[in-house]
Amino acid sequence: MKFYKGIFYKLSFYAFISLVSSSQVSAESFYRLDTGDVLRIQIYDEEDMYLEARVSDRGTISYPFLGEIKVSGLPPEELEKIITERLTGDYFIDPKVSVDILEYRQFYVNGEVESPGGFPFQPGLTIRKAISLAGGFKERASREKIFVIHENDSDSDPKRIDLEAEVLPGDIITVRESFF
Length: 180
Fold this sequence. Notes:
By secondary structure, the protein is α+β, with helices and mostly antiparallel strands.
């Protein structure tokens, strides 16, 4: 019986790890590539096909054999699929393509913070952490009057946001002054 309990616990552990890994992958699949992202594209066992590229202001990258590829708006997994499909047949039999984001595009913090400016996005970043990166609140900063404009928001009106809200790449965060 002790043997079966050991196997059960090991299987439970591996199921948990698998569940955690799949939730992280699905969270990352919501990220869409855009201007300013720096990508690393590689094909397993093909050193000549290694590329690091910044997404251009037109939302494209240039890749060997394929030329210019529009990547703006695509999740990294979709770009992997596109490159794999285009290289299969004429150039490779079964390429194993991976796309990684080396550097995310910036988000911006302005208003009543010590060092306003642009900062590189990091997954899991909150408004509180973003303000810390900007040197923290100034003495007269309001902790409640914090607004954000999301990069691809068609409305572009600032929306009130709390300190625990998630930051997205390209966000413009504004901390207003407190009057009391």
